[in-house]
Amino acid sequence: MARIFILLAVVLGVLWWLRQRASARQDSGPARRNAAGGREPASPDASQPMVQCAHCGVHLPRTDAIAWQGQHYCRRSHLPDSAGEGGA
Ligand SMILES: [Zn+2]
Fold it and tell me: Is residue 11 a part of any domain in this protein?
């Protein structure tokens, strides 16, 4: 008799898991990594957020930017002097 309850618990667990998965998929939208090859090619309207270089103002994907003290920079040489280029 107890087996029925165990089976019921397993079924409910699977249903709950499926529902969690479905809602998680809805949250992240269509911008999940495609099954073809991990990272999707760079496209101008990719859903990744764009940031602005605090030095020169150029916009670039956040994944390509260098984050430093709450700001983003397009390259290392645009970091402020306090970033410690070769300093102690
Ligand atoms: Zn820059």
Answer: yes
Do 30 and 6 share a domain, yes or no?
yes
- Distance in angstroms (rounded) separating the CA atoms of residues 46 and 63: 12
Query: Residue 29's pLDDT is what?
Result: 54
Domain assignment present for 68: yes
CA–centroid distance, 85 to ligand 1, in Å, is: 16
| Model confidence pLDDT, tens digit, residues 39-64 | 555 555 557 799 999 999 999 999 99
How many angstroms does the Cα of residue 78 sit away from the middle of ligand 1?
5
Distance CA 49, CA 63 (A): 8
